[in-house]
Amino acid sequence: MRSDDRGPSSGSLWLLWVIPMALSLIGIVMIASLSLRNTPAGGNPYGLTLKQIQYLGLGMTAMLCCYLTPLGLLRRTGWLLWMLAVLLTMGTLIPGLGVRVGGARRWLELGSARFQPLELLTIAVPLFLADRLALTNRKDLKAFLSPTLFIALVSVLPLLLQPNLGGTILVLVICLSMHVENRGWKYPLLGGGLLAVLFVFLIWMEPYRTRRFWAFLDPWEDPMGKGFQIIQGLVAFCNGGFLGVGIAKGLQESDYLPAAETDYIFPAIGEEFGLVGTLFILGLYAIWCLRVYSLYRRTSDPYLSSLIWGMAISVLAPMFINLSGVMKLMPLTGIPLPFVSAGGSSLLFMWGKIGILMLINKSLIKSQERRVG
Amino acid sequence: MRRNYRFSPWLIFLGLFLFLAIKLVERQCFPDPRVLQQSQQQYWRRVPVRSSRGIIQDCKEHALVIPEVSSSFAINPQFVTPSDIEVLQTVFPEDIVNRIRAPGKNQFVWLKRQTSQEEAEKIEALGLESIYKVEEQIRSYPNKNLMAHVLGFCNIDNYGQTGIEQFWNSILFDPPGYRILIRQPGATSLSLMKEEIERKHVTPVVTLTVDSRIQYVLEKHLENISLENKAKWGAAVCMNPRTGEVLAMSSWPFFDPSDRRARPAAAVVNNAVSRNYEPGSTFKPILMGIALEEGLVRKNELFVCPARLKVADGYVAEAYPKAMGNIDTANVLIKSSNVGMAQIGIRAEKVRMYETLRAWGFGRRSDIELPGVGRGLMASPGQWRGVVPANIAIGQGLAMTPLQLATAMAAVVNGGKLMSPYIVKKAVNSVGEVVYEGAPRLLREVLTPETSQWLRTTMRRVVTEGTGKNANTSVTSLGGKTGTAQVAEAGKYSKSRYVASFIGFWPFESPRYLMLIVVGEPSKGRYYGGELVAPTFRRIVEEMAELEYLTPEKKGTL
Fold first, then answer.
1. A198-246 pLDDT, tens per residue?
2. Sheet strands (E) in chain A
3. Which residue of B1, B392, B395, B552 could cross-link B279, Cys pair, CB 3.0 to 4.6 Å?
4. Measured between CB atoms, does B41 come within 8 Å of chain A?
5. Of B161, B182, B208, the domain-final residue
6. Are residues B239 and B337 in the same domain?
7. CATH classification at residue B469
8. What's the complex ipTM?
């Protein structure tokens, strides 16, 4: 045990779910604020908001389910979940099952509901990989190739075919960083370098990716076309300034800021609540990250460490990717902001991850109690 | 300790959070200037709305001046090729072609401004790319030079230079308006902002009290009489004596408001409000009224009238060198006896007479909605030496504008109420607000109704039995007074330069019209007001009566 462990009574971990709850509620308020203005005449201005509240309810259920599942069962069925996720992701490529939205098949249509299997993948990959990584302790290349690279590539393959660059990056980042956490920097860095070369190639291959990439570098080259969304995101930040223009007073309505409720919700917050609002959101993520870190430090079990890290990265990496995208720090990828953006799949599985973290917390407390007892 | 590496991946989070926080501060508070510019420009746009200079219309809402669009053509000499020059030479005068050919960096030469339709088509047919067309506004005068002096004109940039155009420029000149449009991103089309926010925009209108039909009659006869007698100038004012509204106002010589080149400075002056002249006998009823009010004269007094009367250092003579004998007060006016009036004039106390005349509006500007209003000339009472008081009594030795005389005479005939003259009935600005409404304004009561009644009856007798017989007409009961004034020349009264005039009102019991016609310096021999102006006056009254019969609402009231 490490000296800073505060024992089983460590109660500050309630922030683990309180912060996501706060973020979800902020998201709902923001969606309401945006959709009040953006709903076309005749539409229900509260439709999207009510839907998001329903999704939050589903998310809470998902969290509860994960929390109540025995940890051992979760570990044993990790591979099954992963297989399922990969299969579902592949399912998006089957015409009829997969839905094409904006040039890419990312969604599965299940009756009336749409579902993005990528979100399931981001929870299944850490679960499975943590289990695999904990099996051995070797640090050689073979250990990197399998399980890490194998799982990564199998998961990424359907994503590449969708095509979904953001999802690919996300899954690769999760896999490589989990390897780093478990086995050190050497091979992930090497592999990352190789993959970077591969990415440049991939970007160069697909015209629409090249377009997006160049738009990222200089959106003003085509302010009404390729660069439009990026510029409008920056304009939203600029409009907000320090204190923001006030709730529901933003000028960046739907015509200006496409996907303001989903991918671009952060600039929308920046416009209405200013730097104060955006730093507050960023601070919430940072505090949440600290809480996860304190959970991480309470265990030395390789599987649990790996899983905590995997969960943390699968929540925080989309956040960083989304924020960097809308702030013109990297190309746009279409990854939503965890907890805040409108969308069912993302909210559902993000809360599932919270459930898993709380499950780990519960089991750690139990094992400590046992040891103390 | 299981950790088998030196650098914890958690530190990456720390670094990323810090980096994003710094970048957020930059994005929100120190944005790229291009982003800032976009933010300031993209939501709305001010779109100029073509505005037109307002309309001037008469009391019956017939437009007197209408804004129209005309094409002007300019050329950029930098783009002119030698072959273009050859084409241009065939159409445009040499000086313009020379200016185009002149070396230098000149980028703009007007070819022809405010062209007619045919000219525009001709220039467009040249098909030269270096020529460009500019739409400019012009003023169109549907009635040609009718009322040109009152209306005034605009310079080539549509700014009022004289008359109503100048005085009401701030209302008529409608600055190019702007409409705020919300911009739809990505689309070239712009959607209108909610209607209530949009500025209400209408063409400004100035409505005059003038009736253009009366104006037409007045102008026709003023032109005829001025041309026939080779007059140097002329003026005519017709007003409603009870309210002070000007029904017609004209000035000779005329000018064409649409022709910028044919506009001699002398012609542009509105003699009816700007010219100071000595009124002569037409002033006598006013002085008689004052004298009656002040008790300087009784209605039944007898005056001994020789042909010439010595007053102090000078003489007052009758117009026709003949003694009138013993005549009563009324006959002094009816026969227009200068000697009789002079006797009344010298009874007045100078300062008091001066003050009273000032109170009647002489020597001060008429408060009418026109520019260039004359003040009149009246010497201060300290200078009223010798024969001056006697001269003033016969309308010499003081100068006034025709409008001042008509205004004062209106008070004489309307029961003694001095009404401020006005010519603008209503002015509506470009936002649709009524910014001005002309209304009768009583300045003061200068005569008792009894005095006014006596003067009306007396002036009726001027027409029936006195000097104004030539004006007598059967269509109405006209009252009036003739006037023949000498023009002062180098300190003396000229024996060859006169101003003939006639002022009249009808129906005399309760006048609805008062009209003054002044013919300045006729040079065809005749110069007596009763002889020269009275017949014209009668014809105008008769034609106006015809107009009245044709007007449904007033039918049969005359």
1. 878 877 887 777 776 776 778 887 777 778 888 889 999 998 999 988 8
2. 98-101, 104-110, 113-115
3. B395
4. no
5. B208
6. yes
7. 3.40.710.10
8. 0.92
pLDDT at site B27: 92
Q: Same domain, yes or no, for B184 and B320? A: no
Residues B142 and B232 in one domain: no
Contacts of A235 in chain B (CB under 8 A): 35, 38-39, 42
Residues of chain A contacting residue B2, judged by C-beta atoms under 8 Å apart: 300, 302, 305
B86 in any annotated domain: no
Average pLDDT of the segment spanning A138-144: 84
Q: What is the CATH number of the domain that holds B162?
A: 3.90.1310.10
Q: What is the pLDDT of residue B185?
A: 52
Please judge whether A177 and B9 are an interchain contact, meaning their C-beta atoms are less than 8 angstroms apart: yes
From chain A, pick out residues whose CB is under 8 angstroms from the CB of B184.
255
**B359 shares its domain with B382:** yes
Shortest distance, CA B200 to any CA of chain A (angstroms): 25
Predicted confidence (pLDDT) per residue in B5-62, tens digit: 557 889 999 999 999 999 999 999 999 888 888 887 777 766 666 667 889 999 999 9
Give me the domain span that covers residue B145: 55-78+107-208
Asked whether residue B36 is assigned to any structural domain, the reply reads: no
Last residue of a domain, one of B208, B225, B241: B208
Radius of gyration of chain B (CA): 34
Residue B38 in contact with partner chain A when CB distance is under 8 A: yes
Contacts of A285 in chain B (CB under 8 A): 17
* CB contact A69 to B (< 8 Å): no
Any long-range contacts for A80-85 (C-beta under 8 Å, 24+ apart)? A81/A120, A81/A123, A81/A124, A81/A127, A81/A128, A82/A124, A82/A125, A82/A127, A82/A128, A82/A151, A82/A155, A84/A120, A84/A124, A85/A117, A85/A120, A85/A121, A85/A123, A85/A124, A85/A125, A85/A155
Question: Same domain for B169 and B230?
Answer: no
Clarify whether residues B313 and B250 are in a common domain.
Answer: yes
- Determine the residue of chain B that is closest to A226 in CA distance: B186
Tell me which residues of chain A, numbers 140 to 179, contact chain B at a CB-CB cutoff of 8 Å. Answer: 177
Optimal mutation site among B6, B14, B24, B28, interface A, most CBs of chain A within 10 A: B28
* Minimal C-alpha gap between A218 and chain B (Å): 12
> 3-state class of A301 per DSSP?
coil
| Beta-carbon count within 10 A of B195 CB | 7
| B198 and B221 co-located in one domain | no
Question: Is residue B90 assigned to a domain?
Answer: no
The answer to whether residue B394 is domain-embedded is: yes
> B182, exposed or middle or buried, with CB in 10 Å at 0-12, 13-18, 19+?
middle
> How many other CB atoms are found less than 10 A from the CB of residue A104?
20
Check CB contact of A223 with chain B, cutoff 8 Å: yes
Span A12-34, average pLDDT = 91
Instruction: For residue range A336-368, list pLDDT tens digits in order.
Output: 999 999 988 899 999 999 999 999 999 988 888
**Count: domains in chain B:** 2
The pLDDT of residue A304 is 92
Instruction: Please name the residues in contact with A234: beta carbons below 8 A apart, sequence gap of 6 or more.
Output: A219, A267, A327, A328, B27, B31, B32, B35
Give the range with max mean pLDDT: A3-17, A111-125, B185-199, B369-383. B369-383
Chain A residue numbers with beta carbons less than 8 Å from the beta carbon of B186 are 224, 228, 255
